[in-house]
């Protein structure tokens, strides 16, 4: 490496000790596409001689082969390593680089500037302390400049360097620089940033990168590297309350039980009293164990194993905290969510919320508002699209221990996962922890579900009949109910179209309206089944995720998904409302949209051939009911 210390050759242990004691600054570069982010970091590494000799040779060869600077060095190639990045001349993925100077160690994340890759930028910013936001001096503040500035403030970064780049292309004009500074301070006044340092520079020419001066004699400030070496780091998480989420319960034999995890904040000592946030149970720390031996103190960032004096119930995902600190556990949160997936967020849909090692199903109960990241205005909305940000209410299936994001990042952030594809679809930051639902008094009823079922002489169940629109679901459900009634069974038929005229009359036919429509039917079906009835549900319920959610809502009630498989042509022939005709007219006669609008069950409890006569299909369902709900008095 070109940058070396004499200690390396004289005393390697002293050199390593010196490196270990240096402070570490994590920062990102962001801004609009082509503002020069990769070039800036490449130039910073080059001028400070912090790259290896083989990298130097490779950079020179790559610059001649795929560079954009003619015969000159293309510094961006140090960061843009993907083939697609070099072909297009843009950053796509986040590139991380480690380097150090005599004063500090650094980890820089070079993030994409294109709007399409905003989610990659959020990933890089989530662990950073400082953001270097680049602006092209010729263009001033752009949409992505504003977008990235908002996202930087959203993830908790409070120190920003406004690097006004390409000053060489505007003749190092002081007025241009000062106007951009004024515009940015005006825009950022509502972002809650603590420090904004404006620096005029030229990443290509090297002005104000390592040392100040050069072609900007009118600039009296320090260089970019000097600022990064001296900027005050955020308050250490060591001084915050102790938090550690258990990642693994280590039980190698009967004589040892340890709780492994990485300390999110605070510090811990042997003898300290800790409590399990979810249950409130307490014990004292007996040992702090690491691979290098026991410790007398452990601090934030360290991976440890805690051994406790008393045996208490602790599972993977539980949060440990010191007994003198307050930690909330709730199943209702308010959080800001950055949507990271092409398929939009739908209020009412169930996802998986993962916070550290803890995972629980969650429902986005309400999208309170979206945020226009260009104007910072709050806007109404029914769904979040890719790269959009919104404030949402979340209902968790089980209480989760967490902190507010502004207080502790690691214990106040989470990701959302699609339950069918297992894809990460959103990133969230907890803004408010609301009282848990179990705080609401629950009245125990003396006449319970079992008693109501016994008096009717039957086992309650939910028969959820799904299929394409006009597949014949209601006709089939009506025949089944007639047979149940003739056999002395107590039943209830919930028809989706009828509920649209009453209970769900306030819902539209958008995706979010469909999600809420199915959720409400699922809740009504469960309540009705708890009264001891056999519940027949006839509704399209086009989304597999929502049908799965309806099964979860049923809880211990027997739930059977019945798929009435009627072909596209048959459904269109039966349609008297003009529904399918309207779809084809709106999309130029594309019949495939009939299939796209419905997600068939992958493994239904019973699949019926829609081409057969309804009476025959009803017999099949009755056979299912009789098998699960036998009675000697059954009337055939």
Word description of this protein:
- This protein has 636 residues and is an alpha+beta fold.
- The chain folds into 4 domains: 225 residues, Rossmann fold (3-Layer(aba) Sandwich); 86 residues, Elongation Factor Tu (Ef-tu), domain 3; 109 residues, Translation factors (Elongation Factor Tu (Ef-tu), domain 3, Beta Barrel); 180 residues, P-loop containing nucleotide triphosphate hydrolases (Rossmann fold, 3-Layer(aba) Sandwich), CATH 3.40.50.300.
- It is built from 18 helices and 28 strands.
- A hairpin with a 2-residue loop joins strand 12 and strand 13.
- The protein is globular and about 95 Å long.
- The termini are far apart.
- The relative contact order is 0.07.
- The C terminus is likely disordered.
**Which value, in Å, is the CA radius of gyration?**
31 Å
State the total count of DSSP E strands. 28
Strand order of the largest sheet: 2-3-1-4-5-6
User: Could you describe the largest sheet, including whether it forms a barrel?
Assistant: 6 strands, mixed
What share of the residues lie within helices? 25-40%
Bin the strand percentage: 25-35%
Q: Label the structural class.
A: alpha+beta
How many structural domains? Answer: 4
Shape: globular
CATH topology of the largest domain: Rossmann fold
Give me the CATH architecture of the largest domain, please: 3-Layer(aba) Sandwich
Q: Helical stretch count? A: 18
| End-to-end Cα distance | 87 Å
CATH homolog superfamily of the largest domain: P-loop containing nucleotide triphosphate hydrolases
Low-confidence stretches: 80-92, 632-636
